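During the second year of the project, the team shifted from modelling isolated chains to modelling whole assemblies. The rationale, set out in the original proposal, was that interfaces cannot be judged from single-chain predictions alone. As a representative example for this report, we include one of the complexes processed in the last quarter. Its constituent sequences, exactly as entered into the pipeline, are reproduced here:
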Amino acid sequence: NAGVTQTPKFQVLKTGQSMTLQCAQDMNHEYMSWYRQDPGMGLRLIHYSVGAGITDQGEVPNGYNVSRSTTEDFPLRLLSAAPSQTSVYFCASSYTSGRVYEQYFGPGTRLTVT
Amino acid sequence: AQSVTQLGSHVSVSEGALVLLRCNYSSSVPPYLFWYVQYPNQGLQLLLKYTTGATLVKGINGFEAEFKKSETSFHLTKPSAHMSDAAEYFCAVSDQSGNTPLVFGKGTRLSVIA
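Output from the structure prediction step:
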């Protein structure tokens, strides 16, 4: 049981390049989400998914695309990277049943756009 | 919509002194409440959470928090600070459906002075 995994751990992009941040979980959680963390801003929600085939926008979705074709994977795509997307990205998955609520975070991807 | 306000972006305490990190939330429905800690260059670690039941919640590393519905607060405390407590702390809220993503505060950086 690996929990939530993210790849890569570090990435440097040039402005205009595209890339996909990978996120996978092996806990069969329906709910997954992407956050970005910037100094003094806390974690802000980019996109989330309540199940395979269902995604929705969060607080800061512009410049990012997501899809959820399987329960396990929730990749985040940057179509044309901008310096403003320099950040640390965290993926999370969660489970709820009755009064039980569990959320797990990945280790993060540190992205620099030059 | 839910929101979280953490009072004080930076708190400094002496080693052995009381730690008090403030969190107020806004939610139109009964909330789930969380505190996370992030050590430098690391991911998020769950300190404690309130979902239901006892309003005083004990977490790891000697931290505890009390859910006060009348004050819409969930302040984090520790009786005696240790140097190893120096980190950034995030308060977060979700609703009890479990189908809405966590909303985070902007974080409070705790410094511990010897």
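Chain B touches chain A through 24 residues (CB under 8 Å). Residues 37 and 45 of chain B are 5 Å apart (CA to CA).
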